[in-house]
Design brief:
alpha+beta; Alpha-Beta Plaits; 2 domains; 8 strands; about 15% strand
Length: about 325
């Protein structure tokens, strides 16, 4: 029987990750991501189908299932040198994958399952420490599944071939510095929670001066503009070096939804009245506005249903993006 390299690579990667349940993502260039929640056995049974989808141009991804506890952290976009530095230190990875020539992903394993907010902060810390992609630093980011080709157009060679995603290592062991990572993350989380509580109380007080959404006149629009800029600057004055412009926009957006403003009103307010937004976001202003308003809208709805922010934070962006595709 001919050796199946894809089957061997997938089996070894999953053993190294050691999750109880996985999500497999099949991303089509036009149709987006199709998600499947599978056990290791389910994935192995589905390899022929995944190969066909990959052959047709889909990229194949994997992550620990969001519905199950996890101890895995992904660090994305590492160079060979940076990966070597990671592997030589206290945070060495349980699994490393070469996603394209010279580019790597590392799955770091903690000692125990951790809640999403802890894993998110560990991912951010490791991305900062080792120069990983900060946009991939969350508690539930997809990594590449080894044994399939990377179908991104920029990786196609002169002969029209896509590179295979290669399993680089898979020891499956927790990092020796895992406990330190968790301690660092919990310290950051507590400081951020305290700051967020202070900022939320400030915004709640200032929201009393926001014009009501029901009374919409040219004067109301002017009052809303003045309120937005005043809130933003008062946050900047009160929190000084801890001020985060994006968080100020986010909190203003959440406050507007609580007052009954519609999505487009909130998006317009951010785009038109967030001080210095063009300089801060450049060509990405429209995307930033859509993401900020969309996430605030979803969070406003989930909070009304009793959700805890730590449990849904990493899902807000994907939920907002899905809703954005269906807006008229």
């Amino acid at each position: 029987m001919q050796h199946d390299r894809t089957r061997a690579a997938v089996s070894r990667q999953l053993k190294g990750m050691g999750a109880s349940l996985y999500e497999v993502g099949i991303r089509h260039a036009e149709r987006g991501m199709l998600n499947r929640e599978w056990s290791e056995a389910d994935i192995m049974k589905s390899l022929d189908w995944l190969k066909r989808e990959n052959f047709k141009g889909c990229d194949i991804y994997v992550r620990p299932a969001r519905s199950a506890p996890s101890r895995l952290i992904l660090v994305d976009d590492l160079s060979m040198g940076t990966l070597a530095r990671l592997q030589a230190g206290p945070y060495s990875a349980a699994v490393t994958v070469q996603t394209s020539p010279g580019n790597y992903q590392a799955w770091i394993k903690l000692d125990d399952d951790m809640p999403a907010d802890v894993r998110r902060e560990v991912a951010r810390h490791l991305a900062r420490e080792y120069g990983g992609d900060p946009n991939s630093a969350d508690s539930a980011h997809y990594g590449r599944l080894a044994g399939f080709t990377n179908r991104k157009p920029e990786h196609i060679d002169a002969a029209g071939r896509s590179p295979f995603v290669l399993l680089d290592s898979y020891n499956g062991r927790p990092a020796s510095g895992a406990a330190e990572l968790v301690q660092i993350a919990r310290g950051v989380i507590e400081r951020e929670r305290e700051q967020a509580r202070s900022m939320a109380a400030h915004v709640q007080r200032e929201a009393r001066n926001m014009p009501q959404a029901a009374t919409r006149t040219p004067q109301t629009a002017q009052e809303l503009a003045e309120w937005y800029r005043s809130l933003w600057h008062s946050l900047k004055t009160q929190f000084g070096g801890d001020f985060d412009a994006s968080r100020a926009d986010w909190m203003a957006a959440v406050a507007m939804f609580r007052k009954g403003y519609a999505f487009q009103d909130v998006a317009d307010a951010i785009a038109q009245h967030s001080p210095g937004i063009d300089g801060r976001k450049g060509a990405a202003v429209a995307d930033y506005v859509t993401r900020t308003a969309g996430k605030a809208e979803i969070w406003h709805e989930l909070k009304a249903q009793g959700a805890d922010y730590a449990d849904v934070a990493d899902a807000l962006l994907s939920l907002a993006q899905d809703r954005a595709q269906n807006r008229p």
